[in-house]
Amino acid sequence: MTLYGEKPPPTDDRPTVQVTAVSWPGDEQAPVPPVAGRPGGGSRFRRGRLLLAGGVAAAVLAGVAGAGAYAYAGDVPRGTTVLGAELGGRSRAEAARELRVALERRAAELSAPVRVTVGETASEIKPADVGLAVDVDATVAAAAAADAHPVSRLVGSRTVDPVVTVDVDRLDAALRAVVGSQGREMTLPTIIFTGTTPKPVYPKPSLTLDPARSAEVVKAAWLDRQAATVPLVEKHPATTREEVDRLVDELAKPAVAAPVTLTTDKGSVTIPPTAIARSLRFSADEAGKLVPRVDVKRLRTALGDRLTKIEVAPKDAGLTIAGGKPKVVPGRPGQQLDATALSRDLLAVLPKADGRTVTGELKLAEPKLTEAKLADLGIKERVSTFTTRFPGGLSSPRSQNIVQAAKDVDGTIVKPGETFSLNGHTGERGYDQGYQDAPTIVDGKLVPGVGGGVSQFTTTLFNATYYAGLEDVEHKPHSFYFSRYPAVIESTIYYPALDFKFRNNSPHGVLIDTSYTSSTITVSIWSTKIYDSVKTEYGPRRNITQPKTVHLEAGPDCIEAAGSEGFAQDAYRVITKNGKVIKREKFSWTYQAEPRFICGPKPPA
Q1: Which residues have C-beta within 8 Å of that of residue 48, sequence separation ≥ 6?
Q2: Is 377 within 8 Å of 415 (Cβ atoms)?
């Protein structure tokens, strides 16, 4: 008997293999007897099994190695396609070239306009106008990361969607033109005072586009060559109707229920409810979050001479126009209450019925604009002027509102880089601020409203800054076209929801100078002239619509209107410098047809 691991008898001259520490499953059992007639046969059988196993293992390892090499050839897994192009097994550079070739084959298809429907309006958008494109490098990167598992890379197949880019802002602007009058501005919540009576303005949601959602819908439709149905969504203000009512009950009403005593080192002042009402502001941010604050500047105005025994207001150096040239008006320092602390402390006691006393701290107040700083601003010449006409003479409430706004803004200096806000400068334009009831547009019709007519001053100011070449930050044309204004290049305003803003993007200071007659309002901009000219070129009117006739219930609040056509139009601000056009800026607007409003019932047919 030959034991496992022993050599065969010397008479067996067949080659032998010495095996140690290797066994097949089951070889741990007792030694197996040799097969009859085959000395050492059991050992040779086992050696055969070992040799076979070694060969199979080598073959398997070689196969796996070969398959791995095949599967991992290139950066992109085999079997990967994008837009029908086979990118599998290629390097990233090769895959990018192949994808670009595939895109060139589909160039005509991908450049074709995308049909979009927003609400009830359908239109078309050119992909190039909104930056619709396939990002080749990002798509190849996504394809390379599609599936890293070895087996899947070897035998799998996959289709990877291309990475599509779009300019969200340009797309949103294009879609807003399609929305037209279907949209609805958000009504921001606020609380206003009529005298000492707080009145809530409740929030209403806007009906508008969600830019990110619109982009996803249009990108998907573009790739699939389908029409895109872009949804209009409601955006609700962050402050609810219930929260507005709570602020009325817990702050606005208690605030004006009794006076507040202000004590200082120089004496005490009683702040009456009327002054509190004029200075307590409820402002909403863009999201509609309503936040109360005490406007100390308004409080000073409301208290008038009461603070003269306590405060000495600083005076900025200024400019006035005399003899056709700007003349410096010197400034001076003062001593004033710490506005931040006073606003905070007043807001804390206003909800209380008792303990309505605050302590004010006086601080040195330097003028913000000294004569030296003013001289450095380079305000030396008139660079633009604009005039609009108004009917009714100076006695009409509308004319008085225009003049009041002009007085509020006259002499304002805007430093380089600063943004001027008309709402921010005047604050709320109410009765206490010298404004009167006059016709204003609300929900598409003329109704009486405090401050009506200020839009004419806004339009005049907008055009003066426009022709000075200053940067337009925010404005909104009227819903209806009025022939007294230049088409497209005009602006309405409504506190606090609609504002007019411009930025002084020049290296010099800007002085706003206003003047008026019995039938005109003029705004001039003084600075240092840096452009040869600023002109407007108009495109033709298009999409003209005719007004409808609407009968309203007769009464004191009914205002008749003759109506006007609706149309869309483009205007181009063309700025030249050193004999060359350096900027051509497009402004576009679509006017609704203003209905012909008649106060009284419709006559029988």
Answers
A1: none
A2: yes
Task: Give the pLDDT band (50/70/90) at residue 74.
Answer: confident
Q: CB count, 10 Å around CB of 566?
A: 21
> What average pLDDT does the chain have?
86
* Residue 466 burial (CB count, 10 A): 26
Residues forming a β-bridge with 256: none
For β-strands 580-591 and 80-82, DSSP reports them as: unpaired
Beta-carbon contacts of residue 382 (< 8 Å; ≥ 6 apart): 513, 524, 525, 526
CB of 162 closer than 8 Å to CB of 223: yes
Q: Which helix (H) or strand (E) holds 341?
A: helix 339-349
Residue 196's alpha-carbon distances to 131, 301, 354, 431, in angstroms, are: 54, 16, 19, 12
Residue 533 is inside which H or E element, if any?
strand 533-538
High-pLDDT (> 90) share of the chain, %:
68
- Tokens (6 digits) for 86: 């086979």
Instruction: Please say if the pLDDT value at position 289 is more than 50.
Output: yes
Residue 126 half-sphere exposure toward CB, CA atoms < 13 A:
3
Please name the residue that has the structure tokens 């200082």. Answer: 264
In which element (H, E) is residue 273 found? Answer: helix 273-279
Report whether 499 contacts 474 (CB < 8 A). Answer: yes
The helix (H) or strand (E) run that includes residue 137 is helix 136-144
Alpha-helix residue ranges (DSSP H) falling in 12-130: 41-71, 92-105, 107-111, 127-130
Q: What is the pLDDT of residue 15?
A: 41
**Spatial CA neighbour of 402 closest among 516, 557, 318:** 516
According to DSSP H, which parts of 448-532 are helical?
454-467
CA–CA distances in Å: residue 222 to residues 109, 173, 185, 339, 573: 9, 18, 29, 56, 33
Instruction: State the Rg of the chain over Cα.
Output: 40
Give tens-digit pLDDT for 185-219.
899 999 999 999 999 999 999 999 999 999 999 99
SS3 45: helix
pLDDT in tens, 360-400: 999 999 998 999 999 999 999 999 999 999 988 999 999 99
Residue 512 has pLDDT above 70, yes or no: yes
